[in-house]
Amino acid sequence: MSGDNRFLYYNEPAAMKAYALELGIPEEDIVLDYAGRRTYDTCYRARDIFKVNDVILITQKFHISRAIFVCKALGVSAIGVPVDQYSQSGYRRSSLFYWNLREIPATLVALWELYISRPVPVLGVSEPIFPLEAQ
Length: 135
Known about the structure:
This protein is mainly alpha-helical. 47% of the residues lie in helices and 9% in strands.
């Protein structure tokens, strides 16, 4: 579970973990990535830190196409599952408009990062999720 954790009271991975535990996911099956500050970082770190070659991305519908594209461009095979496929009525129309509109500049930034600037995200020690397969 990857997300942003740069600020004291903002911890996306911890929130995802708490929700997964509530759903009955065993804690030993949960791996957290606290440095997935943006989609590019998450996909890059999945490949280089967690040594993952294939991923299932679980995210909002408006974001899933870009997330799959970024992972594939970085050499990580990806499929996506939208988390909000059954809850579209739970979003205000203005929120949906904003998030869909936000994808336009976010996609342009992703293209810039993938093909021009190629930033190196926060890395660290390799932490293979599947240690036996990573050898």
